Amino acid sequence: MILACKHCDRLINVGHIGQQQRARCPVCHSHLLSCKNNQQQWLSAFSIASLLFLFSSLYSPFISFAQKGLSQQITLWDAALLLSEKYSTALAVVFVFTILVMPLFMCFLVLLTNSPLWSKLNPHNARWIAKTLSYIMPLNLADIFLVAVLVSTFKLMSYAELSLGYGFWAYVLFVFCFIELLTLIDANELWQRQQKQFEPKPLLCGQSALSQSLKQCNVCGQLTAHEHCPRCYAKTHFRKPQASARAFAWMLTSLVLMVPANLLPIMNTINLGQDTFATVFSGIVIMWQSGSYPIAAIIFVASICIPLFKALALFYLLYEAKMCNNPKRASQLYRWLEWMGKWSMIDVFVVIVLVSLVQLGSVLTVEPQIGIVFFAVMVLCQMMAVHSFDPRILWDKLKANE
């Protein structure tokens, strides 16, 4: 089987892949294809396990908080309702989508694609399902939410007594199963089961698909010279339309939002009737001064360093796409941006957890502030900037092997 690398556009003859093996591009070293023992059975098993653990975590006690004789116990579903009714509908939507809607949708789609119905679907419906999977996979924030819960518990340990309920441990098991599920999903294997790949002739391996006037379908990976994919009927492009301009616009928007996100308060802590407004940076300083050095370092890196570095890295990629000095290094940087994009959401989830849990009236209460909305939108804009960029343009001006 001949595939076009999604990162450098080189045609690679993958050949036969044995069990428990994976193929990588010899040019840019990005992942091409993998083959695991009983992959379909494992996908179905982890999907069902993820659903069971997720539903178990929704209504069971998640975490409890007690201070001065007052106590507060919360479930994940109660947390979403509290956010929506008393504070921010936008935060409630982000919370419900990331911890409930997206994982549920993903698990059901995986079960569908591993059922006998998948091979019987017409290409239009299969294309819609595959596109949905590819769009929501990068939005997996379950592991980020779990880290945010742990950070929140460290922040609250100095205030009161905390205990973790059955819902928390069920959610931990859900995160492990769900992450393993995501690592098993392979788009090429998915489409080979739905419909075999057409191979246009002739194909010159080692050269780019662009140099042979071939376009790679963004949905199923099919190579074609036509305007629409012959396998899934999606519209095809040599490169993502206006990839550089869109990536630049999204990242520039995120930089503008970064100013109010860091200057405006993200939450207000009411302790014995006294208001204490905290920005992202002031919260880090408070944790550092209280001796929580690892947690302060994690928040500082995830909330301040990573967004700034992502902006600089994307601007470097846009520059590298024009100069083509070191496309291999630039491709590695792009893959790093894809992986690190979501970690800046830790602060958003920390605020959500604290607001949901700490509601003891005038004794101790945490309220969200407008800064957290700017921060969440800023992170989403950066994720869209990375998604809009097309890493293949990094290699277009390279003349070697052409």
Task: Characterize the structure shown.
The protein has 402 residues and is mainly alpha-helical. It has 13 helices and 12 strands. The chain has a 3-stranded antiparallel sheet with strand order 6-5-7. Strand 10 and strand 11 form a beta hairpin. The mean pLDDT is 81.
Main sheet strand line-up: 6-5-7
What characterizes the major β-sheet? 3 strands, antiparallel
Task: Estimate percent helicity.
Answer: 40-55%
Mean pLDDT: 81
Distance between the termini: 21 Å
**Helix run count:** 13
- Please give the radius of gyration in angstroms: 23 Å
* N-to-C order of helices and strands: EEEEHEEHHHHEHHEEHEEHHHHEH
Record field, number of beta strands: 12
Structural class computed from helices and strand pairing: mainly alpha
Determine the strand fraction and express it as a percent band. 5-15%
Low-confidence stretches: none
Shape: globular
Short description:
The protein is mainly alpha-helical. Helices cover 55% and strands 12% of the residues. It has helices at residues 39-59, 76-86, 89-113, 123-136, 142-156, 166-184, 187-194, 243-263, 280-289, 293-323, 327-340, 346-357, 370-388, and strands at residues 2-4, 11-13, 21-24, 31-35, 63-67, 70-74, 161-164, 215-216, 223-224, 267-271, 274-278, 364-368.
Topology summary:
Blueprint: E1 2-4, E2 11-13, E3 21-24, E4 31-35, H1 39-59, E5 63-67, E6 70-74, H2 76-86, H3 89-113, H4 123-136, H5 142-156, E7 161-164, H6 166-184, H7 187-194, E8 215-216, E9 223-224, H8 243-263, E10 267-271, E11 274-278, H9 280-289, H10 293-323, H11 327-340, H12 346-357, E12 364-368, H13 370-388
Antiparallel strand pairs: 1-2, 3-4, 5-6, 5-7, 8-9, 10-11, 10-12
